[in-house]
Structures
1.
Amino acid sequence: MKRKLLLLALMGILLVPMVANNYMIRLATIMMLYCVLALSWNFIGGLTGYPSFATAAFFGLGAYAGAVCQGQGAPMYLAWILGALVAAIFATGLGLAILRLRGHYFAIASLVVADVLREIVNSTTNLTGGGMGFNLPILKLGVDAQAKLFYYLMFVLALLTVATAVLVDRHRLGFGLRCIKQNEDAANMIGVNATIYKTVAFILSAVFVGWAGAFYASWVNYIEPGDVFDVLYSVKPIVMVLLGRAGTISGPIIGAIVFLLMEELVWRNFLTFHAGVLGLIVVALILYLPDGVLALNFRRLLAWRKNG
């Protein structure tokens, strides 16, 4: 039954560009992007228990790596791969440096990374365009064709992220990360190399985000430091995972969908102060649903069984 529902869902997703207008395709593309961000953060935050705020750094780094590569005349697909590789390599070095910290010390250390990278990009005007931004080569495609192309690209990337999450969950790596979350010292005692496991989780939290950043740069054709290094790219994935359920596979996906729907609904109805209204809604949901939306469904099922 689950396989049939999953197959129907995949078929529906593949058919979206055939029946939807460009506005709906754009929303669906953003939904795929949000799923990638949430699932990626879940590797380090949900499974390992390290509150990372480095997602914006990985996203912006992937976006600029891909953009600069295209600006130098490289094919677009190579630029996308480079964006993912640069984010992964950077995460390796950064992880070895700051994963020795724990709790709020780690959170603060990861939070400032995006600011440092933004300042570096701003100062390297000859290479990145600095504060003036960076214009990417415009694709020789129509508006409709380009919208469909990046929808499918984000969809494939989301599938790769989900597949990786499933593999990690079923692999010894997933078990080790959960042990680290419960008690890192005890995990080391039972043979889990916490340093390696944490670093791998940190790399996984970066590589798909950097890839998504490279896609995003080609999609919008123009990027600037304040956009791609925006701290919201670090905050939103955390909120999405909390809205779903941390440490699961379906939780971040559901959280990403719920967050996008709330974001779009609030933006439409409260244009002038939508950020404040959205923040209040998110805080209320987290306070009253500390275990996420999945827990709400479980409680309803239990109540239905008792009443039945």
2.
Amino acid sequence: MQRGRLPLGVDPNLLLVAAWSLISVGAARLFGTYTPGAIVLATAGMVVLTLAIAQVRRVGPRPPGRSSLMLAAVIATVAAQVYAAGQHSRGPAEAWAHGLLVAAAFTVLLLACTPDWPRWLAVGPLVFATGAGIAGIVSSPRPSIDDWHMMQGASQALLHFQNIYGRSWPGSVGHQFPYLPVAAILVVPFHAIAGDVRYGLLAGLVLAAVAVRRMGGGRATAIVACLIMLLPRGLHGIEQSWPEPLVLGLLAGTVWAVGARRTGLAVVLFAGALATKQTALLAVPLAATWPSFGWRRALTSLSAATVIVGAWFIAAPRAFVEDAISYNLHLPPRSDSLSLFTSAMRAGFKPSFTAVPVLMIGCVVLAVWKSPRNAAGFVLGTAWLLGMLNLLNKQSFFNEWSLVGGLVIVGMAAMCQGDRQADAVPDSPAEPSIA
């Protein structure tokens, strides 16, 4: 056995593709709610992701080889045919969304299987997938989920210079705005121009794909960038108006900006992610211990996010605490949550939520200790922490799991970007790269 390899000499990128497939397909089953098969797939995906991170630490970042990219393209093509439509999609636009998504997936498969192709051809899948996203929004003009009404209402409130906290939203059964303010701020232009915040969420996915494409690595990142747009049930996530695509785009942009040595922009993008959704805070310890970003920039980003969020707290302290903090902490356990918490409930146990923060502190310590200190380690470590939170939490659904799957793909691209201050030096490559 060669030094630095797992017993079977597995390429870490193949492990990442396997983890992405298990997690994303598990989350796509029954639109991200609990089934025995879905929790088995998601849990298995987290186990494989753990092995992948360990292998990256052993052998260092490696660009994806042809076999891993072809496998991912095949899985994306099959998933696009099975999990194309949103939950409430209807009419001719749904057929367009399905057709464009399948066309994008088949084009990615063609790119992965063809050794030589013009670079401009890689734009095709992104165009097809973006068109599918637009058609998906058109096919579901008024989804019944609370999040769409909350995001639409919050955007409308901002357009009229009103506070987004301490309000109830027509159509949302009186639910508060449970996210951080940047989640609403970023989609305001799209609501103002196109009348629907979901175009802004689609733009977040496009931003992530563009950032991945610009990370270096030639053809490898061109294909990986397309996979960002081909997550199983990805159109469902956009339709439901969850803010995870914004977090994914901002974190992917952070990694690209660090690699491009635009550290000021990286600080801004990371601060934006931290002020979009509360769970993004799990990335702060990994950012602080990533030498190319460092604790000073991590602290600056955290401070900037605190200033943004703090302005809303100062404007209405009680309303902000009730909406963005208390509401989330006091959510009741759900029997349809895709988590081990739910599995324990269904098995007759009564787990206590107080154990979750304690276990997550241990996970953070483990992630900081064991994750590679490079771009790939930052992204994959963040994906692992978010995945562990999903497994342990009392409410985890498609949106939370989709962010984990998206970050795994960004992690594959980060392997192409490289990092001069990485703590591992690659051995001889496990397989030729197509980059």
3.
Amino acid sequence: MVQMTDNPLTAPDQPEEITIEFEKGIPISLKTANSTVTGSVHLFDTLNKIGKKHGIGRQDLVENRYIGEHRI
């Protein structure tokens, strides 16, 4: 199974600073320590990679319940 985010326990201990520039409410550039990204697809892809590395959006859920007569 492919994980969408890395485990927060193995994420970097230091934050990663980013700057998002907007024009009329639309993000037009993303600046990191190493690069500047423009274009909506590149912004989206880069933010997903940064979020994955830092464990953003991860939720681990374990359920144990009965539905009808079948245990799930």
4.
Amino acid sequence: MRKILSSILVVLLAGCTAHYKVSEDIVEHVSWNAGHGKVVKTISGANAKSFQQLTPWYGKDELHAYWMYIEIEEADARSFKALNNYYAVDSNHGYFTEHLLENSDGKTFEYLGSNWSRDKNTYFYNRKRIDVCDYESFKIIEASVPSRATDRSCYYYQWNTVQIKDRSSLEILPSNYAKDKYSVYWGNLRIEEADAATFDVKGEHPVSLAKDKNSCFSGPKTIECSRLNDEGKEFCGCSAK
């Protein structure tokens, strides 16, 4: 749930209007959201004379860099650059919001889109480093919400290496599902009761029903026919059960 909330937070922030307000001696970050209206935060210690707004969410002065009103303590202000509202880089490291990305290399760091980034050594999802099995063959799986990836040895959901049983037979399915010849997976979870040989996903939507010869599934859990609409009942063969 915390992973989902983190992604939702980024989406919500993207929909807000924000900017830095610089007066003679004070730097403030101004934002708006539906819950609180206008939010104004003074950046304690910021140098108004040298302050620059890089994006509505990143700024810096001659000594420090900031995300919103939060000082990024590890940042090198002289080389600090914003890549967008949520990713930045300096000569030493990459950053997600105000967080330094662990062991990242600033000289080769790049944002790839949809919460993915990389440097010469590895990949990252949001603020988490991924211990990839094979860097050269690593590939993000295309989807409306691209949260999965593969390489020649492993399968990933966000920053998690999924403990699949048989990589050679892995089949990527829609709606966060995948299967090998032994098991079915949703996200980084193995669906123990699912039958891999007969498992099928209804559609290409980010959230979709799935079924096997015994059950119907929503995400990693079985779902009763009584909870489905007519289209879902038809897909799951509820009348025959």
